[in-house]
């Protein structure tokens, strides 16, 4: 019997383990925090294959910063995960999460080295963070009238800010935005008032727009004549000769050949649109589509004979427009009250869903059902320019959506400085202030002097790093706002990461193959 090779581990404990953690956190901090703020620097990200990418999107830099030392990277990964969590929750504040989390750990590391207990320090910073978050929520105000400000601050570009704010004000919080990359310089938006598919089509007679078609929605794959003939008979023998099939019709099958022959003979016009998803939740999307067009979904296991003469399986819409890349159903004839109930159910699920993947699917379903979709076209002269523009648009979209949901704060970094004056530990206070100092250092500003100016100024005053002044200004009047959610998530996730690292005194890692061979 062949047994697997024994997996050899490398074990570090005590000061040796904490030294690795400190090294990993420091490298992640130095790399990611260099992008912090409006005056942050770009990072060149080399790729295993292809050209390098130029960006100052914090979470992207964090994701692609993989350290060669396994133990150091394990520690850096805790900050990386915190940044990604902030990105999923708020879409902004990702760099600040790494900066604050690292600064908290720097303070913890010194105190643990001096003999303090890491578990007690974790409890202390957790208690401090709750005070800071309560303060931020109390200072938060409604985002109405400030969406343009939030989008502009997040994107660092007035044109992007205006496009994003206008789009989100139009489609609302239930709407969905898709970003489409172009191979030429562009930045524009298409607003769609219908059920949108981001998939191509198979148009049998190349008619790309069908008015008031019959719509058949099927979960069951159509492959045989037994599957397709009842559908075709219903259309050919009726008055409406326009047919849309939403589902999978197997190519080069008997069903496809029969469908094509009927179209070529002029008996009907037909378009086949693939399902919007093939994953585990595809059935939910198909149920939504059937409801939107007023059809009964034909599901796996049903007998195709049930379709003959049964109008329930066929819905309709004002029109269906298809292209090689997507399709849109305009004004489905489904019952408005049924759709409203389904929308409310999805909204409730979104509020409680913990899985980011399932939450994304729920949000997609909600946007499609409400018929409010926007497609932002982004492009650049080079792939690097296009990718950088995409990052900025994504950040602005997510930050603005967060602001619409939870409100805004006048200057996120400035609010953290104000929070440092709460009744919190010196450890947490210093981390908040050091995070602000990094922001100013990136802007080549005298950090301690600017910090002193803010602490001596009135509430709501701070600096606009894109238009620096000698004295603090009224941030509200200047339109400098950040989404409350992004600042709160920064505090919450940075504290969680630092607290987790505070409790570690042992690292157990597998030995790489080349080192394992030497040990053997």
From the N-terminal CA to the C-terminal CA, the straight-line distance is: 21 Å
Rg (C-alpha, Å): 28 Å
Biggest beta sheet attributes: 8 strands, mixed
Number of domains: 3
Tell me the structural class. Answer: alpha+beta
How much of the sequence lies in strands comes to: 15-25%
Mean of the pLDDT scores?
87
The CATH class label of the largest domain is Mainly Alpha
Number of helices: 19
Name the helicity range: 40-55%
Identify the CATH homologous superfamily of the largest domain: GroEL-like equatorial domain
Number of strand segments: 19
Stretches where pLDDT is under 50 for at least 5 consecutive residues are: 516-520
Envelope shape: elongated
Give me the CATH architecture of the largest domain, please.
Orthogonal Bundle
CATH fold assignment of the largest domain: GROEL, domain 1
Walk me through the structure.
Helix content is 51%, strand content 16%. The protein contains 19 helices and 19 strands. Strands 6, 7, 8, 9, 10, 11, 12 and 13 form an 8-stranded mixed β-sheet that branches. Strands 4-14-5 form a 3-stranded mixed β-sheet. A hairpin with a 7-residue loop joins strand 2 and strand 3. The protein is elongated, with a radius of gyration of 28 Å. The relative contact order is 0.18. The C terminus is likely disordered.
């Amino acid at each position: 019997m062949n047994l697997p090779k024994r997996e050899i581990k490398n074990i570090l404990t005590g000061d040796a383990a904490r030294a690795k953690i400190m090294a990993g956190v420091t490298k992640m901090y130095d790399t990611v925090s260099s992008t912090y703020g409006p005056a942050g620097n770009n990072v060149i990200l080399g790729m295993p294959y292809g050209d390098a990418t130029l960006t100052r999107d914090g979470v992207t830099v964090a994701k692609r910063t993989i350290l060669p030392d396994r133990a150091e990277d394990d520690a850096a990964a805790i900050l990386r995960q915190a940044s990604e969590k902030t990105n999923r929750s708020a879409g902004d504040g990702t760099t600040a999460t790494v900066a604050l989390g690292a600064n908290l750990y720097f303070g913890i590391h010194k105190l643990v080295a001096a003999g303090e207990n890491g578990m007690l320090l974790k409890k202390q910073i957790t208690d401090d963070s709750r005070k800071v978050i309560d303060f931020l929520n109390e200072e938060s105000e409604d985002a109405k009238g400030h969406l343009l400000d939030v989008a502009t601050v997040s994107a660092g570009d007035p044109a992007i800010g205006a496009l994003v704010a206008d789009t989100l004000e139009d489609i609302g919080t239930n709407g969905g935005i898709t970003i489409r990359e172009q191979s030429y310089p562009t930045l524009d938006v298409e607003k769609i008032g219908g059920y949108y598919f981001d998939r191509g089509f198979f148009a049998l007679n190349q008619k790309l727009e069908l008015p008031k078609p019959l719509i058949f929605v099927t979960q069951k794959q159509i492959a045989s004549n037994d599957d397709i003939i009842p559908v075709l008979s219903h259309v050919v023998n009726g008055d409406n000769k326009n047919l849309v099939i939403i589902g999978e019709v197997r190519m080069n099958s008997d069903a496809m050949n029969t469908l094509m022959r009927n179209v070529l003979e002029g008996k009907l016009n037909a378009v086949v649109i693939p399902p919007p998803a093939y994953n585990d939740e595809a059935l939910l999307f198909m149920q939504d589509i059937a409801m939107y067009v007023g059809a009964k979904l034909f599901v796996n296991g049903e007998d195709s004979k049930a379709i003959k003469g049964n109008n329930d399986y066929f819905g309709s819409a004002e029109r269906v427009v298809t292209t090689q890349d997507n399709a849109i159903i305009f004004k489905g004839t489904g019952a408005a009250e049924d759709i409203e109930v389904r929308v409310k159910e999805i909204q409730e699920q979104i509020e409680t869903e913990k899985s980011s993947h399932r939450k994304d699917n729920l949000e997609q379903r909600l946007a499609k059902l409400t018929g409010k979709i926007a497609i932002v076209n982004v492009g650049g002269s080079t792939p690097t320019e296009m990718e950088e523009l995409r990052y900025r648009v994504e950040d602005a979209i997510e930050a603005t959506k967060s602001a619409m949901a939870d409100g805004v704060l006048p200057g996120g970094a400035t609010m953290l400085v104000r929070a440092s004056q709460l009744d919190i530990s010196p450890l947490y206070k210093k981390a908040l202030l050091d995070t602000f100092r990094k922001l100013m250092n990136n802007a080549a500003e005298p950090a301690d002097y600017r910090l002193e100016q803010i602490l001596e100024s009135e509430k709501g005053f701070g600096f606009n790093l894109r238009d620096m002044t000698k004295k603090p200004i009224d941030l509200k009047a200047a339109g400098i706002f950040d989404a409350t959610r992004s600042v709160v998530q920064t505090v919450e996730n940075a504290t969680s990461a630092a607290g987790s690292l505070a409790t570690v005194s042992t690292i157990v890692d597998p030995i790489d193959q080349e080192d394992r061979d030497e040990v053997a």
